[in-house]
Amino acid sequence: MPGKIVLLPEDLTNKIAAGEVIERPASIIKELLENSLDAGATEISVVLDEGGCGGIQLKDNGTGIVPAEVPLAFCRFATSKIYEFDDLYQVRSYGFRGEALPSIASIARVEMLTRPAGAIAGTKIVVQNGQVEEISEVGCPPGTQLKISEIFSNVPVRKKFLKSRNAEQKLCLEAVSRLVLPHNSLRIKVETAGKALLSLPATRNLTERIALLVDHDLPDKLIPIDKTQGDISLKGYITQPSFSRTNSKQIQFYVNNRFVRDHLLQHAVMTACRHLIDQKRYPLAYLFLEIPPPQVDVNVHPAKLEVRFRHPQDIYHLVVTALGMAMAGQALSPTARRPFEPDQKPFSDYDVRVREAIRRYNVSTGRDKTVFYPRLSPKTGEPDSPAGPDPGLFPEAEPAPPGRLKFADLEYLGQHGASYLVFSAPGGLVILDQHAAHERIIFEDLKQKRPSKTDGAGQILLLPEVVSLSPADFSLFLEIKDFLAETGLEIEPFGNDMVVIRSLPLFLKGEDPRRIILDILDDLPELKSNKALEEKRERVLIALACRKSFTARERLTPAEAADLCRILDDTPNGYTCPHGRPVSVMLSANDLDRMFKRR
Ligand code: ADP
Ligand code: MG
Question: Once rounded to an integer, what is the mean pLDDT over residues 444-465?
């Protein structure tokens, strides 16, 4: 039975609130950097200890805090950024709730040195467990320095939820990258144990910043976006359709310079790109929405990662239009200039896709601005395919029965769409997804180190390929390098976030080596510290096996189909792909009868 109602003591309420705002070292970095940016800093340096888990130091050259206000900065709801309720709807600063510093100080030890440029002396304050332990006058350079240590030492459960140091470090770097991307004149350095993880000079423009943060080759591939509609504007860049990634991480949205995650915006991007880029691939996009602050509520999420728009349809429409037009314009221009020649194929495959995208774009936004929102799949965040088969069409289709069925024994009927093999089985019709089968076979071979079957031994590249990685990807790369080498994919660090690819496994022969490594790094779900080594290795192997399947769309001769069946019959777990999707489904005689209304 619950007891009587009491008011919780402040140190406890602070800890509870901290739980929402400060989840991990990366959240601390985010809050501190936001404060520095709000304070007008143009130069920031950060030191991470043990991926941020061991401690975080930050130094900025911002406005600093006057001595009298230093203790206030650590009080909940103490802020210099808003003064009355209505200000909430005019905020342009990152912070306004006055909760970051007290939250951090409730779960860690915080030491701050701060001095406004005009003040004679600075102030030092140490706060731990929400209590001020020391406050004194000190000499220090103008600006603010923070030293956060003993992170989560008084909330051990939080500590257990942290990932490996490398993974936390990657999250910290991602947080830094997202935050500093729009501030191209800011200089920032992040280092660990004396080694620079990120060192960004002030850049002249956004594209240079993107090049340094994401990929040196990216600027050539970017299409500029610039469109205004009433008092809302969208600026930024999206990659040309030929340049894409396997996940949507690099579709980044900023609303009034604040990085946000938003399904609606994400969906608008995918709508604009649909049919322009390969299925299951995503563009890279850096998009900046400027909107009058009263039309957007930024106070709806603990870490302010989500916002709420007053008129979401207008924004959706603007994004789809702006991107659709920019991409279509870019893609069509070479063809549009070329005169039509009758003996030439009038449209390339690519042009057809562009036209289709434009057609769809017209359908989905319409003239009357009725917006079409297919449901987002909760798992992938991708739109549920509106063009997919009627979900009622194969109601009974289920994975073919394991154990009893040998593919080699079935009667092979043929191949559909360079993707599916169709068989007649005693119990019904069996459809095999050749890509999923391939993934499973390669994965099992890699797992059991049977290079002879997958030709897993490396093939040395005649010209080793140098690839520049983002700092975050580079950290991840170091963690998985040995697992990759084991498959024949030999990649070595090459200074300054560069790697050099020396050899490829034969099963990836002929593929673009840089795309392989970028895709694999993109693909890897966060490798948790509590995962056993073998499990980490498996994740890497799955990413590799599935990388192959992207290019596996091919016509098979009956002999090749028979080979695939034979190998699959020999492969453990041959009924699902390594991600758990079915390799084959069976339509039983009953199912068929029901579909044709024979019963
Ligand atoms: P908020 O950012 O929501 O105002 P915080 O708890 O993050 O709340 O910070 C409290 C206050 O401390 C800020 O409003 C600001 O006045 C001051 N402050 C914090 N960090 C800095 C900094 N790096 N430079 C100058 N002032 C700072
Ligand atoms: Mg703040």
Answer: 69
